[in-house]
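To: structure subgroup
Subject: Chain for Friday's discussion

All,

I'm putting the inputs and outputs inline so they're searchable in the archive.
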Amino acid sequence: MRISIFAIICLLLISCQPATKTEDAPFDQLTQLIDQYANDALQPDHINSIAVAVYKDGKMYHNYFGELDKNAQNKPNDNTLYEIASITKVFAGSLAAKAVLEHKIALDDDIRNYLESPYPNLEFEGHPITIRHLLTHTLGLKDRRPKEFGNVIKKISEGYYENRVIDYTMTDFLEELKTSEVNKKPGTFYEYNSAGPELVAHILGKVYQKPYKELLMSFLSELDMNDTFLLDNSPEGSKDIANGYDSDRKIVPKDKNPLTGGAFGLISTLPDLMKFMKFQLESDDPLIKESTKILYEDDDDNVMGYLWQDMGIAEEEGFYYSKTGTSEGIQSGLLLCPDSNYGQIVLINNNSDESFDDWIQLFIGKIEPDLIKFPKINLTSLLKSKFLENKEAGVTAFNALKDQEDKYFNTSLSYALNRIGYDLLASEKNRKEAIEMFEFAVKKFPDNANLFDSLGEAYLTDENYKKALENYKISLKLNPNNDHAKDVISNIEQSKSIQ
């Protein structure tokens, strides 16, 4: 029996409405979209698995996708342990903020006040390295790290110490530091490094007269983060940690930390990281306000707090701060926006250029915009599956909802079709469907230069140069200022690949 288009539209509209009228319904819609985004991010097959958590206005959600190891049917779960790499730094930063508030240290203290040896080399033209410089990656060192320490890091990444005790300690590091050269005024030049955070951790151990690891574990215990620990100099302890994969899809060694543990080396679960996210967004502990003060910024958009980075004030969402971590095989990110009361965590167990692009698109390009706009829901994403099932019915459903500006955003149909087309184009196996979506879009909007440009790009990706040229020329005719189309047309016409 054939179903009328009217009946289809009714079904689509009903399915797009919240299942209940409870206050949780918009958040449920949001979490469904997050699941959709994560599953879409797996489609190009650059990422094995994804772990996602979000916080918005007191509500939290998390979920897992894919397999940690291909064809092993081992989906991540709440017990999965991940290397969080440089996110380790913000815990050292938090403890430093606590020490400042307790007057154990001061931001502008000369670090040599806390070191056992004189270190006359740790200054530039009378300007010493201070605690502030350690926290903001502005030490002014000629080399990011001492030579032998760099060699040890390289050997760790190559797996040399996978089953060996690392023959390099903080004592060796401090001795090597005596040969380091400061060739720039501290506080004037940003260069990301591990030396600063490790020195922060060492100094904290000195002022509290306790091993830094003890200080760190006590802090984690206060946050009920009982599944978070340092992967340090031990030859054991890494067996239950999620495998990370490099660009060749090979398992990579774990990033053990041979020093104090201020720069990298923390292992955690997603639920534990969620506790830290909630602490940042809900607690009134003074160390949060202190640790998120902006301590350094420059003209290259480097903005630093107490080892937090990528900080600032955005026009729509207000103050935000974040930290990412990249180990040999794990990519992680934590983003917090207290003014808009949201946060998110995204972890993947792959490290390649392609997986990074997919991760950042999910992290910043997909999830964050929806958190910013909530309780409004992304209409384009909400109806994506409907468009793919029945394009005309999807258009009718979209048009029926687009004027409800109190409930939805991304309510331009041309934008919706373009966005869905690009989502499909991101996966090679969906290229045909992407072309079909863009073809449908230009029929609906025959005067839209951007859509013809997109269709041209889809054909170019599919190596159909004749069709690509045809659509780029239409785009250029509709918009003579489309320099991108001019360049592509020139490149195609100069090649011998036109078929």
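Points worth raising on Friday:
Residues 353-373 form the longest helix (21 residues).
Residues 1-22 have pLDDT under 50 and may be disordered.

D.
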